[in-house]
Amino acid sequence: MKHLMQQLLKPIGIYPLVYFRILFGLLMFCEGVGAVLIDWVQEHYVEPTIHFGYIGLEWIKPLPGYGMVYVYLLMALLGLFIMVGWHYKVVSFLFFLLFSYSFFSEKTHYLNHHYLIMLVSGLMVLLPAHRKLSWDVRRRPELESEVAPQWTLWLFRGQLLLVYFYAGVAKIQPDWLAAKSVSIWMSAKTHFYVIGPYLNTPAMIQLVVWGGVVFDFLIGFALLWPRTRMVAFWVAFCFHIFNSAVFHVGVFPYFMIAANVLFFSPEQIARWFFRRKTDPALLAQQPLKQPRWQLRLGAQFFILYLGWQLLFPLRHFFIPGDVNWTEEGHRFSWRMMLRTKRGAVYYLVKDAATGQQQTVWPHDYLAKEQLRELPKHPDMIWQFAQFLKEEYRRQGMQEPEVYAISSLSLNGYPRHPIVDPNVNLAAVPYNWGAKSWVTPRPEADGWPWKKWMATEDGEKEGAK
Predict the structure, then answer these.
(1) 3-state secondary structure of 47
(2) Higher pLDDT among residues 5 and 443, named by residue
(3) What per-residue confidence (pLDDT) applies to 459?
(4) What tens digit of pLDDT does each residue of 434-445 get?
(5) What's phi and psi for 109, nearest 5 deg?
(6) H, E, C per residue of 266-302
(7) Are 418 and 438 in contact (CB under 8 A)?
(8) Nearest residue to 47 via CA among 323, 379, 367, 420
(9) Dihedral, 73, 77, 83, 89 alpha carbons, nearest 10
């Protein structure tokens, strides 16, 4: 442990942090302005009258009216301040708070890259990325430093490694390997200019399936190894540009390209982007300007944070059921682009006292994106049932019972109810983990793992 702490606290060139501060701030400016210009903020925050918060955090609500538009424009401005290093610590903390607020106030549009940006923005608050080439240094020259502790760079590297690796782990499943979801996506993109006719070919589909597995598993380790680093970077560059062109995932591909540069040595980054020559041996002898207790606390945080990031995405392995169907453990686990769901749901509200029954259609209450996501997520189906319970109580119904009638197709397979239509969701408390009112993924003919499970069971029987 002592040797590990020495390595984590070893001084290295600060230019990687400066480089990433500038690129991160620029990308967050583009993210904030772009989300407003394409009406993304308006569609997800302004138009809905009901919002789906994360269970336990429902008290976090979006600002009314056009408030969230102003929040995103403010985040864009803060991104510029981060880029130039103006009051960096305060500004980066405000950006982290605002982005976290927007993230947790509406989960309908959960995206892994928003989760990653939230995490990274929080990490930026802790790092001395303002101690070189910043307005803070112009105002207070005593802040300037040529070095930073080594853990600050490895914090980003470790986070990226886990994102890539767990994306690869998630792809080792029958549906992905059978190209179920990929085939659906590509068939919907044949209209794309120039590349469209080539996207839905068998060769391209297999390239995406197997290339995605190999890329996610190996790219992080290839970026770590100096002999393969340059080739790996350009492979990752092409991979992310392809994702940007085909899947339109905002600034995420460019964020990852910018972050991948951090796998190069601090000396290379200083030379390429700042035209500065640095000697790692001399830098290692320079003192770090932070107090010793802060440095040690930062190194301890590094260990705890990456340990949590290593373990938390594995939780779905300990929850019964297929995560692609039940969604238990899907969020915050780097499970990216693994399933395509199409479904529908409506509700029956019964008055327990009179026996009267009403049919409720969610489109009377929800916005377009919410209607699309509601049938896919059992927790959202439950949350809307709780809303209906309170809504009908306000209308005078004493004991409303709420039943969800759902049908869902996962990756093109036949539709099946995702929640038990005979369960009164109004009376069911929400519990973490497997839920009795969520149906298991059906094992009808055609499901890839039915044959695999039967084979496995046969082998077990023969071994007894």
Answers:
(1) coil
(2) 5
(3) 41
(4) 999 999 998 744
(5) -105, 35
(6) HHHHHHHHHCCCCCHHHHCCCCCCCCHHHHHHHHHHH
(7) yes
(8) 367
(9) -110
Three-state DSSP class for 199?
Answer: helix
409 is written with which tokens? 């197709």
Domain ranges across the chain: 1-317, 340-441
Give the tens place of pLDDT for each residue, 326-371. Answer: 999 999 999 988 899 999 999 999 999 898 999 999 999 999 999 9
Specify whether the CB–CB gap between 402 and 388 falls below 8 A.
Answer: yes
pLDDT, tens only, 376-400: 999 999 999 999 999 999 999 989 9
Please provide the distance, in angstroms rounded to a whole number, between the alpha carbons at the two ends of the chain: 46
Distance CA 215, CA 256 (A): 14
Q: Which residues in 326-392 belong to E strands, given as ranges? A: 341-351, 357-360
State the virtual CA torsion across 283, 307, 89, 250 in degrees, nearest 10. Answer: 100
Q: Which residue has the higher pLDDT, 195 or 167?
A: 167
Separation of alpha carbons 177 and 92, rounded Å: 41
Distance CA 238, CA 172 (A): 23
The tokens describing 130, both together, are: 């303002």
Backbone angles phi and psi of 293, in degrees to 5? -65, -35
- Distances in Å between the Cα of 120 and the Cα atoms of 211, 217, 256, 290, 421 are 27, 22, 12, 21, 41
| Assigned token pair, 250 | 């905002």
Specify the residue for token string 């400016």: 29
For residues 43 and 211, what is the distance between their CA atoms, to the nearest angstrom?
A: 34
Cα 236 versus chain centre, distance: 18
Check: pTM over 0.85? Answer yes or no.
Answer: yes
* Angle at CA of residue 241, ends 236 and 246, nearest 5°: 125
Per-residue model confidence as pLDDT tens digits over 220-242: 999 999 999 999 999 999 999 99
- Who has greater pLDDT, 458 or 210? 210
Q: Taking the C-alpha atoms of 117, 316, 212 and 104 in order, what is their torsion angle to the nearest 10 degrees?
A: -20
The whole-angstrom separation of Cα 228 and Cα 108 is 39
Cβ(406)–Cβ(384) below 8 Å: no
Rg from Cα positions in the chain:
25
In whole angstroms, give the CA distance from residue 88 to residue 128.
9
